[in-house]
Amino acid sequence: MNAPFPQPLTSIAAPLIVDNVDTDTIIPSREIRSTGREGLADGLFAPWRYSDADLRTENPDFVLNRSEHRGASILLGGANFGCGSSREHAVWALREWGIRCVIAESFAPIFHGNCIRNGIVPIALGRADVESLANARVMVDLKAREVNALDMVLPFTLDTEAHLMLTHGLDAIDLTMTQAEAIEGWLATDRIARPWIYLVAAISPRGAGL
Amino acid sequence: MPQTLFDKIWNAHHVADTAAEAALIAIDRVFLHERTGAAALGRMAEMGRTVRDPARVFAVMDHIVDTRLGRGDGTLVKGGQAFITETRAACEAAGITLFDVNDRDQGIVHVISPELGVVLPGCTLVAPDSHTCTQGAFGALAWGIGSSEAEHAMATGTLRLARPGSMRVTFDKVLAAGVTAKDMALHLIAAHGAGGGAGHAVEFAGNGVLALDMEARMALCNMATEFGAMAGFVAPDATAFAYLSGRRYAPEDFDAPYWQTLHSDEGARFDAEIRIDASDIRPMVSWGTSPEQAIPIDGVVPEGPAKVHDYIALPPGARIAGTPVDVAFIGSCTNARISDLRRAAALLEGRSIAPSIRTAMVVPGSMAVKRQAEAEGLDRIFTQAGFEWRMSGCSLCFYAGGEGFAPGSRTISSTNRNFEGRQGPGIRTHIASPETVAASALAGCIADPRKYAR
What we know:
The complex is a heterodimer of chains A (210) and B (454). With 210 residues, chain A is α/β, with parallel strands linked by helices. Chain A has a single domain (9-171), classed as Alpha-Beta Barrel (Aconitase, domain 4), CATH 3.20.19. Chain A has helices at 23-26, 46-49, 89-97, 109-117, 127-132, 160-168, 172-177, 180-193; strands spanning 9-16, 50-52, 57-58, 74-77, 101-104, 121-124, 137-141, 146-149, 152-155. In chain A, a hairpin with a 2-residue loop joins strand 8 and strand 9 (152-155). Chain A is globular and about 60 Å long. The N and C termini of chain A lie far apart (44 Å). With 454 residues, chain B is of the alpha/beta class. Chain B folds into two domains: 1-281, Aconitase, domain 3; 285-451, Aconitase, domain 3, CATH 3.30.499.10. Helices cover 29% and strands 17% of the residues of chain B. Chain B has helices at residues 5-12, 34-46, 80-94, 109-116, 147-156, 181-192, 207-210, 214-222, 238-244, 306-312, 338-348, 367-375, 378-385, 434-443, and strands spanning 14-17, 23-26, 29-33, 57-60, 97-99, 124-127, 141-144, 158-161, 165-172, 200-205, 231-233, 272-277, 284-286, 294-296, 327-330, 359-362, 388-389, 410-413, 428-431. A five-stranded parallel sheet of chain B has the order 5-4-3-6-7. Chains A and B meet through helix 4, helix 6, helix 7 and helix 8 of A and helix 2, helix 3, strand 5 and helix 5 of B.
């Protein structure tokens, strides 16, 4: 169970409005040092955030290093945000750093799903709207599906399932298990329709070594 | 009503609707690797959850294992050993079939899954790896997910999904000599953008696709994720069934009438359509830091974002052919199968790489590919030309903090991603077909493989 999403979420919007920001940049593979979900914030955006990643020398020009953005919980992005590797570590790192909402022109699909599973709201808006939010005090009203800033009210779409999961901090597995009966029923039918899918159990793994 | 292949697979796996306009879709196969396997299985154990049907879950050590001879659990990647040992222990505890570091069947997940017949036409297969779409080449709906989704798939046998749109990309006519499936993928992404497939499951169709062998179809589907699509797939035909027949986890034959139903019906409606004349495609190479920044080998670098030109150190207007490279890399789930190695070796046989190349490396996609290549003498062609010959794994397709290329290197690489820093801090990556990598290694600069064809 995640915590329900803050209602509303208010923060300065930190602009990183670049297209195709990939998950290797959000967290490079070399920064994934533990097998768990923690300890990743330090490696967030390491290639851009540090002028020397080994020494952790900060690059003062990077948006999240500016004093006004250090506590930001809203990040702005360009098109195809979060493309590349499926690593959920990218979302875990953002969340650990404090980001709760990414507003971008569009999202890569796996990243989008990872956000929803981890209490980060992915909001797609037109490029001009995203740009108009740069450095503004932004209020995200998830319940109403609206972004409020300056004198603007920007409605956004989020599918009902994602909206429900985020708003209430629901656990997807718990939710699915409420339909366990339907799954059992489907499996019973499918075992007859497509037996080859289930034959793997009878094939012993080899694991023979070289 | 005529249905698309996507409709058929989706509907056949539709377990129930959820309360909120999504669907519970049954998942037939899950494949894990050591980079995220321990995290997913560890968290499941923490939450008191069990893997519902471990027989249909597989795992392999491919992401951060060393590719040096004599490798073991220790890795050049700092801290890598924990990922391997914890994944092994978690697979053992859960009863999951694991292809371990020194298993004879070890290899890159999307290479070994088809080799072993784990992926089957019409099935749903997910893995916490974005290139899972590779396996759509067999007419499966296969896609990459995050760790949380992998937990969900293992715990419940399903995923909660909003239905994506369906897109058809038709390649009319066939490829010219020296042009490959990799070039098709780069051509498509360059023309329609790295987000061009967003929100869609993409069927690759047309004579240009049906003329491809299975390994080439895998290379094409591999880069559906670089196109922003949820999945990419090809309707299975005799070529696909012949490839899979009799493989370890596959049926002996595909004679049952069911297998002939796995195609889009005449007149089926797609939400989006793209048509490309495959005979127009030339060998492609990326010039920038996104796969959409790719041009024909005889092209010039267009005007792009200043940040990209700075990183890649190529100005607008520069000819891409003739750009000096330091590193040649053949490997990855895109282009490290036996046919890829054969084509590269055909160019390299009896020739030597340019003295200016600092590193040239071949990392076979699987240990089975490695054995086959050695049986054909390809390893000797590579090593005599000046390439290193490695054990199988994902290797330097990405930089995990262990082995790396020399700082500032420019690489020509048969991999799938040219992102800033993907192959290491400051490394400038140009992605291309294996034959373009081979030709460039010979020339010492980005070179047209057709000039080296025999």
